[in-house]
Design a protein that fits this description.
Largest sheet: 5 strands, parallel
Radius of gyration: 25 Å
Low-confidence stretches: none
Distance between the termini: 30 Å
CATH class of the largest domain: Alpha Beta
Number of domains: 3
Strand content: 5-15%
Structural class: alpha/beta
CATH architecture of the largest domain: 3-Layer(aba) Sandwich
Length: 393
DNA sequence: CTTCCACCGGAAGTACCGGTAA
DNA sequence: TTACCGGTACTTCCGGTGGAAG
């Protein structure tokens, strides 16, 4: 047994370096030293924040842009640079970066902000107002500028409303010594319309828009990183151009493009090749999608799986299903396994959740005399993957 | 123009869980 | 130990609705 393991390890080590020099450079959370084609946005952000180095409070900022247009990278990059400069100028600046999609409850967002000042906040148990009080206290004792970057706030606001934002935007009224500036980052341009007007005007003191990259720009980004991430010669200009083209078709998402390149490299490495080829990229594209669906389906809660089963049945037999049809099929399935079925109200919500995960499409339609309902579909090519993922339980 | 279908989706409430603080 | 907190997962109740049919 152990010699098999030894053999694998040995082989891996031998192969090491044939494709990658430093794979981390292609990971989504890596912040490169240069961000091509984002000079304008960087300059604008710096110009707004730079007054913080003189002890003034910068304007709050709203950043818009689709996924993978460099919003997060630019923000982190600028904040990092600002922190490096601050001490030599005698400015007291700290920042909190919170992705409200990953940290998705009020408690955890506020806790995470407070922790970035060095506070120790338990994972749960204390009142939100208590965290707020402690945070304000800590700010006052410290007396600097705290920059709070809230990534994907549209996602948070959709789920929990804008109360927290309202509070944070007005926090300066509670502060004597310290200052707080907020950077809100959103993928959804329409999201501002849902905000309380007071929050909107305060948060949107400054606005920066990130437009999608075109294929040419994506190529520059990928090419620059590929030079550092891959062994020389392991990846050709043609391959990088191909990845950029694929991603450009999907609304210029740089993260997608980087994933594609990285996974293609991993596949090439796994197959013992010494350079990445088109076929590896094609396989990578399939693997990424497969992995995404499989992961999402297999981690679904029990009843969501049962609902998905009902939808799959209806899609296979008649192409699509309405909420009512799904519900009765779901009830049948649930009872056959001996589970108490949930209410239709809840199932309707579960269908929406499946839609949000991209596992199904739910369209609300009015059929006049025949009522209002949701028509739910699943793309044919996803059915087999889903059945595989569901089959394991 | 009205009716009425088959749901939608907001609001409020309940039960439970893992956690803190004193 | 007890009182309390927030999050999750659900239920109950119910007003609301676009447009084909009459």
């Amino acid at each position: 047994m152990s010699d098999i393991i030894d053999k694998i390890i040995e082989e891996r080590l031998k192969r090491h370096g044939r494709i990658f020099v430093n794979k981390e450079i292609l990971l989504p959370d890596y912040i490169p030293e240069t961000l091509p084609h984002r000079e304008r946005e960087i300059r604008k952000l710096v110009e707004i924040l730079v007054v913080g180095l003189k002890g003034e409070r910068p304007s709050n900022i709203l950043i818009y842009g689709l996924t993978g247009t460099g919003k997060t990278a630019v923000t982190k990059f600028v904040l990092k640079k600002l922190m490096e400069k601050a001490p030599s100028l005698g400015a007291r600046i700290k920042y909190a970066y919170v992705n409200t999609r990953k940290v998705d409850t009020t408690y955890r967002v506020l806790a995470s902000i407070a922790r970035s000042l060095g506070l120790r906040i338990p994972l749960s148990g204390i009142a939100i107002s208590e965290i707020y009080t402690r945070y304000v206290q800590a700010l006052e004792n410290w007396g600097g500028l705290h920059i709070i970057a809230l990534d994907e706030i549209d996602y948070y606001v959709k789920r929990h409303g804008d109360d927290l934002l309202y509070k944070l935007v007005r926090i300066n009224e509670d502060l004597e010594n310290a200052k707080v500036a907020i950077i809100g980052i959103t993928n959804d341009i329409n999201f501002v319309d849902t905000l309380d007007p007071r929050v909107r005007s305060s948060l949107g003191e400054e606005e920066i828009v990130f437009s999608p990259y075109d294929a040419e720009q994506l190529f520059d980004i990928l090419w620059e990183r590929a030079q550092k991430a891959f062994v020389p010669g392991a990846v050709s200009e043609k391959i990088v151009r191909y990845c950029a083209g694929l991603a450009a078709r999907e609304h210029g998402d740089a993260r997608r493009a980087l994933d594609l390149l990285r996974v293609a490299g991993e596949i090439a490495e796994r197959q013992g090749a010494n350079k990445v080829e088109i076929k590896h990229v094609i396989q990578a594209s399939r693997e990424i999608e497969y992995g995404r669906i499989y992961q999402a389906v297999s981690t679904l809660p029990l009843h969501a799986k049962l609902v998905l089963n009902a939808i799959i049945y209806l899609v296979k037999t008649k192409g699509s299903g309405t909420t009512g049809e799904i519900y009765s099929k779901y009830k049948e399935i649930a009872m056959s396994y001996g589970y108490d079925p949930l209410t239709q109200r809840r199932v309707s919500e579960i269908i929406n959740e499946l839609d949000m995960l991209g596992l199904a499409t739910a369209l609300v339609v009015n059929r006049g005399r025949y009522g209002k309902t949701k028509i739910v579909k699943i793309p044919r090519e996803l059915l087999t993957i889903m059945e595989e993922a569901l089959g394991e339980t």
